[in-house]
Amino acid sequence: MQINSPIIPLVLISCTTYNHAPYIRKCLEVFLMQKTTFPIQVIIHDDCSTDGTKEIIEEYAAKYPDIIFPMFQTENQYSKGIRGLMARFNFPRCGGKYIALCEGDDYWTDSSKLEKQVDFLEANSDYVGCFHKIKALLGKNLFKNQYRFN
């Protein structure tokens, strides 16, 4: 089930959320501030949040109906044992050439992140993906320039 939009984006941002109310505004704002020479869209899957995340996403989707496309679960899928939520619920709705991944409690610090990555991939057709170093804030501990995969 692809999204219904007259715009065909070069990059779709795939975002999954669950009870990310304290973080989701910043996450969405960073998506919207990306400086690109191409169209983007944001595909969001909310896994039945109970903390106001859904209402924040609805607010942004109403304000940016050609950019933000949410899907809201009525039952929490993860608690039912369903894994791979991004692949199961977001990827089938993606029709762009590239997919950028970002969880709802994360955000990017570079407003040119997508432009830089697309420029690299377009110039290097032998590559199928790219990523970057991260800064992780865990409590009061900041971990810089590390690659973390959980």
Number of helices: 4
Strand fraction equals 15-25%
Say how many strands there are: 6
Report mean pLDDT, rounded to a whole number.
88
End-to-end Cα distance, whole Å, is: 28 Å
| Main sheet summary | 4 strands, parallel
Q: Portion of residues in helices?
A: 10-25%
Write the layout of secondary structure elements.
Blueprint: E1 11-17, H1 24-32, E2 40-46, H2 53-63, E3 68-72, H3 85-90, E4 98-101, H4 113-123, E5 134-138, E6 141-146
Describe, in plain words, how this protein is organized in 3D.
The chain has four helices and six strands. By secondary structure, the protein is of the alpha/beta class. A four-stranded parallel beta sheet has the order 3-2-1-4. Strands 5-6 form a two-stranded antiparallel ribbon. A hairpin with a 2-residue loop joins β5 (about 135-140) and β6 (about 140-145). It is globular, with a radius of gyration of 15 Å. The two termini are about 30 Å apart.
